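tool_log.txt
---
The assistant was asked to compare two proteins side by side. It first ran the structure predictor on the initial sequence, then on the second. Raw inputs and outputs are pasted verbatim so the downstream comparison step can read them without reformatting.
(1)
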Amino acid sequence: MISKIANAVVWGGLTLLLVALIYKYTDWIKPAVDHGVASVKTVVASVPTGPFGKADNEANLDKARDAFAKGDVEGSIAAYQAYLKDDTSNADARGELGNVYYLNGRLPEAAQAYYDAAKLLIAQNHPERVPALLPIIGQVNPSLANELVQKMTVTSAPATDTQPAPVQQAPQSATGYY
């Protein structure tokens, strides 16, 4: 049994060596092999990369969450920003970035991230999720909170000739966050 396996290994190795020498020193099979290699590269390039077949950008989101869980705030922020550079429509990731800023006392950046998330939520027809973001936005920049309340009112109100009065002051409590 061992001699059969050894025999197959030796003949397989010799065959590969012969094919490699023919490829290197002749033009006989080179065009076909080059075409095959190019085809394989094309197929491999179209396969999603990352852990478990996730795209690279989804890996950035996982990396951001993992970094935050491990206490690496700056690494988490950098990974969220890299993710959001490629996926500008993910309101949840923007809200999560706002959470990282908020939990580290960086309120202006948190408010901006929450504002961006709220604008996306309104545009994606999910205005019911925006009120949770308003307290921090209103604490840092009441005019942005008023703008969001007006947008929510316009998108949720039936079509009428009168517009509701603008909100004078956004909530000043930062007890809730996204």
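(2)
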Amino acid sequence: MHDSAGSNSPATLSYGGAPLTALVVLRMLIGWHFLYEGLVKFLNPYWTSALFLSESQGIFSSFFTWLVTDPTRLAGVDFLVKWGLVLIGLGLIAGVLTRIATCAGLVLLLLFYLCNPPFPGLSYSVPMEGAYLIVNRTLIEAAALGVLWYFPTGQIIGLDRLIFRGRGTTDEDDS
């Protein structure tokens, strides 16, 4: 719902009941997916993003393949991916710094999508889960995070409510 001024900024949207529950569940499910993917990468001592990056056929493929050419750079990317997934997941699940976690998750997913897009004529050595044509689960999850951007549920159900109570500012105001 919009406020009387008709603004649709996150701070002026109000929602509750079933819509709020659905949005919080969506936030937590996406958070669980991020957390799980990060933990799996931490627990596998052989995991690296090298194959994923080296197979890039997207618009920025030269950048992604360049990341693989230096072991130090690749180690940095692996570190950022693992920790990024875990921290984004925890932020979304707990509703802490939800706007930051949502934005970081959206950026990470779009980078994954741009690295290996499911476009016609492109093939990869690691098979995809299904037969995708432009739209895959990465893009869908990014779109869901885009929706959550406009509904900062952490202010209502999450640690953001406790962290920013009475301060007059939230992480949402800073974005």
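---
observation on (2): The chain has a mean pLDDT of 84. The radius of gyration is 18 Å.
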